[in-house]
């Protein structure tokens, strides 16, 4: 009640923010006549002057009115579009690091140009991030004309570019691209060996288009770069053959809400019989147990043409939110291999993680972040908690005229689809265009078949070709057109009404099912009623829909049965719609917890990732590695001599043998000093320094390259092993809850211990390599060749598990001291199996 009174008297926080922008909008409008009097050539000259002012300390807020006025007039001259006042408000919100919630058709693409140009004046680069390559290319080319008129450069990051192309694009004032490309470039940069190979600049300012899709929907899937492991794939096919003989409830139970399966006691016995083993839960059979559960999930939980499709002999994931195919992305933890075995296609090798990051942690690296979408308010709490982003609802330029009709609910799916086909036929006959929104490809094809039987012409969008998709969606507003699409297909493309359609009632949105998220339903509705156009929407549901079956109250089903409803008779009631909305809220809350848990675990990894990536960057950027090598040496000596120094002389018995052995193993000191007795820490330290001095004299010009190579090589190798260990720790950490221990705290504690061990191994392995390395001086003319060979890059096959990437090599450096040649130590073995091991 108190909050209600406060809002009535003072207005909401959103109202107060919009009110605070009125003086700024007035300033921009007051400057318009002056800007209109400028010549075309004056625009880039003035932008260059403002760039210089910013470089000399002028705050962006001071010049915001003039820059926005310049951009608006430039847009009129170049694109023939003038920013409305509400678009200026949206631009201010983005510059302030907020999410601008703007209805479909309000011109979000044009709004972004305002803060983009303003923040590009810093010279640090601005990133504009979209959901697919088509939109990135379209917006970069379209808005690039405006930026070029102002004297600013535009780059684009899409699939298939070379590192040189990427570096040039990131070096532009403004860079367009997809979230996956930006994230993978960050990970790849942290696998490079030389600073000249880096493509990204530091993360300054980003505007995320369709921010809810990228920061909420895709936040459950981390970006992963992985390399093939050596594990055999035969076991997947073997396990797949036993799954059909297992019966639900008898041998296993299934939780569709959690998308999980579990074996019953009888099921365990049956699996042991089929696999001819004594105890499935024996530690030696843990892999078998894991494979059985994944095979069950593949057969019983994951559905073909809903969760994935089979195309060209491959299992391709279907994005549950967009309905798009995601080639290159694979389910983790062996699930993808289980699906391949189920579908009888080639089972690819499992992958080992080489680098990973969540979208949450990637986007939190930006100094300032803004976002645009038509639907963000339902997730405002999550945006605030995870990203510290507040949502600002921007008023529409014209009042909304769309009619949103209550849902209609049928008892069975069959009745529902018949009613949908009847409704489409009626609307089509009246000339009203219809956009049918579905959740899955399977549903799209089913409705298409019903319409073919009634000979109703229609288009089906399966999101395979973005360019074709945009064209079909753009034409969906023509008279009598029927378009069937997944809920978000064609997102980012306006549906313009054809001639005579406004009189027919505008575009009608027909939803075939409620999505788990209210926001995605709102996105579908938002396709109609742009810029004050007429339009309407209605959702058709049945008690057999997944959302209703799993999450809605049983009272609804009982109520419909008591009413004694006839075949095909629907119920249309606001109370029912409210019950469905409550079910959606419960699912949204559960999904938020999943994303938050993922982030909680990744935060542990993120702290470790920052340490490793900062260290890598320092090694790449610093001309000399001497200071770091000395720091590593001091740390190692302190650890090795810690117990020795803390033990009384009379109690050092076993240590007197162990310590010299450790010194020789790590530093190869037996050839330099007498290790029959324990040397002092200072003596050991000096002996290692002497060995490094010999290496420095031998290597001469390539000494720093030698140090850099072994530092990065060992850091990457140990980090890869650490990621695997952390994956294994994460898999079993949930079981700690049964012992009354917090799994997250246990993961944090044990993860820190593993990380400390890894840091010690890096130091240890670097000195094992450096103190055994011998470089034979080449002839003078060969010195340049040797120097180049240290910069030679070897290829390692990797796959990209979080986005639309095909398998391609990551670059690695390799010194040609003879990895396949005789080892310089004189052992007669190959270098890679001796000192280079």
Automatic annotation (TrEMBL):
Region (Disordered): 794-819
Annotated Gene Ontology cellular component terms: cell envelope Sec protein transport complex; cytosol; plasma membrane
Subcellular location: Cell membrane; Cytoplasm
Superkingdom as given in the UniProt entry: Bacteria
Binding residue positions for ATP: 87, 105-109, 494
Gene3D superfamilies: Helical scaffold and wing domains of SecA, P-loop containing nucleotide triphosphate hydrolases, SecA, preprotein cross-linking domain
Pfam families according to UniProt: P-loop_SecA, SEC-C, SecA_DEAD, SecA_PP_bind, SecA_SW
Domain Helicase C-terminal, first and last residues per copy: 404-588
Membrane topology type: Peripheral membrane protein
A biological process from GO: protein import
EC code(s) of this entry: 7.4.2.8
InterPro entries for the chain: Helicase_ATP-bd, Helicase_C-like, P-loop_NTPase, SEC_C_motif, SecA, SecA_CS, SecA_DEAD, SecA_motor_DEAD
Compositionally biased residues, Basic and acidic residues: 805-817
Helicase ATP-binding domain: residues covered: 89-247
Any one GO molecular function term: protein-exporting ATPase activity
UniProt similarity note: Belongs to the SecA family.
Role: Part of the Sec protein translocase complex. Interacts with the SecYEG preprotein conducting channel. Has a central role in coupling the hydrolysis of ATP to the transfer of proteins into and across the cell membrane, serving as an ATP-driven molecular motor driving the stepwise translocation of polypeptide chains across the membrane.
Subunit structure: Monomer and homodimer. Part of the essential Sec protein translocation apparatus which comprises SecA, SecYEG and auxiliary proteins SecDF. Other proteins may also be involved.
Protein name as annotated: Protein translocase subunit SecA
């Amino acid at each position: 009640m108190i909050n209600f009174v406060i809002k009535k008297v003072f207005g909401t926080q959103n109202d107060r923010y919009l009110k605070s922008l009125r003086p700024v909008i007035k300033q921009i409008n007051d400057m318009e006549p002056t800007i209109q009097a400028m010549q075309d050539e004056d625009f880039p000259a003035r932008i260059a002057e403002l760039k210089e002012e910013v470089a000399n300390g002028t705050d962006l807020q001071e010049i915001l009115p003039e820059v926005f006025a310049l951009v608006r007039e430039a847009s009129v001259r170049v694109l023939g579009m003038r920013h409305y006042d509400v678009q200026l408000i949206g631009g201010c919100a983005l510059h302030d690091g907020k999410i601008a919630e703007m209805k479909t058709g309000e011109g979000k693409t044009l709004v972004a140009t305002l803060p983009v140009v303003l923040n590009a004046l810093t010279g640090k680069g601005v990133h504009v991030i979209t959901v697919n390559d088509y939109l990135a290319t379209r917006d970069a080319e379209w808005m690039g004309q405006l930026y070029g008129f102002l004297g600013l450069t535009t780059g684009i990051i899409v699939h298939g570019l070379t590192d040189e192309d990427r570096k040039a694009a990131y070096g532009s004032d403004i860079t367009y691209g997809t979230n996956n490309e930006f994230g993978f470039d960050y990970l790849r940069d942290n696998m490079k060996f030389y600073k000249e190979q880096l493509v990204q600049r530091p993360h300054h300012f980003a505007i995320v288009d369709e921010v809810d899709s990228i920061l909420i929907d895709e936040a459950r899937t981390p970006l992963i770069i992985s390399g093939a492991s050596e594990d055999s794939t035969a076991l997947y096919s073997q396990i797949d053959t036993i799954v059909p003989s297992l019966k639900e409830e008898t041998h296993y139970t299934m939780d569709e809400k959690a998308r999980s399966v579990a074996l019953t006691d009888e099921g365990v016995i049956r699996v042991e019989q089929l696999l001819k083993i004594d105890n499935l839960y024996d530690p030696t059979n843990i892999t078998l147990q894991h494979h059985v559960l994944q095979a069950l999930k593949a057969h019983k939980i994951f559905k073909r043409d809903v969760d994935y499709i089979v195309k060209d002999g491959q299992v391709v994931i279907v994005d549950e939110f967009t309905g798009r195919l995601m080639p290159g992305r694979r389910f983790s933890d062996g699930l993808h291999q289980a699906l391949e075995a189920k579908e009888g296609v080639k089972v690819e090798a499992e992958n080992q993680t080489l680098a990973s990051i969540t979208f949450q942690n990637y986007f939190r690296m930006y100094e300032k972040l803004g976002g645009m979408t038509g639907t963000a308010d339902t997730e405002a709490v999550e945006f605030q908690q995870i990203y510290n982003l507040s949502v600002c609802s921007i008023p529409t330029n014209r009042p909304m005229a769309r009619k949103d009709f209550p849902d209609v609910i049928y008892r069975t799916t069959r009745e529902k689809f018949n009613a949908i086909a009847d409704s489409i036929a009626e609307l089509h006959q009246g000339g009203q265009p219809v956009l049918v929104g579905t959740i899955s490809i399977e549903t799209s094809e089913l409705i298409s078949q019903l319409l073919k039987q009634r000979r109703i012409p229609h288009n089906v969008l399966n999101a395979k070709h973005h360019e074709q998709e945009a064209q079909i969606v753009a034409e969906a507003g023509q008279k009598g057109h029927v378009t069937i699409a997944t809920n978000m297909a064609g997102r980012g493309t306006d549906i313009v009404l054809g001639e005579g359609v406004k009189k027919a009632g505008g575009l009608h949105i027909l939803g075939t099912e409620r999505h788990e998220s209210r926001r995605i339903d709102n996105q579908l509705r938002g396709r109609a009623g742009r810029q004050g156009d007429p339009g309407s929407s209605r959702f058709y549901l049945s008690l057999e829909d997944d959302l209703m079956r799993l999450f809605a109250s049983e009272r609804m089903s009982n109520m419909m049965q008591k009413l004694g409803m006839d075949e095909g008779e629907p119920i249309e009631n606001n109370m029912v719609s409210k019950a469905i909305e409550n079910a959606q809220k419960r699912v949204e809350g559960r999904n938020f917890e999943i994303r938050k848990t993922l982030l909680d675990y990744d935060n542990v990894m993120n702290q470790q990732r920052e340490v490793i990536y900062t260290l890598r960057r320092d090694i790449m950027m610093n001309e000399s590695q001497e200071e770091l090598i000395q720091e590593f040496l001091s740390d190692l000596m302190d650890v090795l001599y810690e117990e020795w120094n803390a033990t009384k002389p009379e109690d050092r018995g076993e240590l007197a043998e162990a310590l010299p052995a450790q010194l020789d193993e790590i530093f190869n000191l037996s050839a330099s000093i007498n290790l029959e007795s324990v040397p002092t820490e200072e003596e050991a330290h000096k002996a290692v320094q002497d060995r490094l001095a010999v290496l420095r004299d031998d290597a001469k010009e390539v000494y720093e390259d030698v140090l850099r190579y072994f530092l990065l090589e060992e850091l990457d190798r140990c980090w890869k092993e650490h990621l695997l260990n952390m994956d294994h720790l994460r898999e079993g950490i949930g079981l700690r809850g049964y012992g009354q221990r917090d799994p997250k705290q246990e993961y944090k504690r044990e993860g820190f211990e593993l990380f400390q061990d890894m840091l010690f191994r890096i130091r240890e392995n670097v000195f094992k390599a450096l103190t055994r390395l011998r470089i034979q001086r080449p002839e003078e003319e060969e010195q340049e060749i040797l120097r180049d060979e240290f910069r030679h890059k070897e290829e390692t096959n990797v796959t990209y598990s979080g986005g639309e990437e095909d398998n391609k090599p990551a670059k690695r450096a390799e010194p040609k001291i003879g990895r396949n040649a005789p080892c310089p130590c004189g052992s007669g073995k190959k270098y890679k199996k001796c000192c280079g091991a």
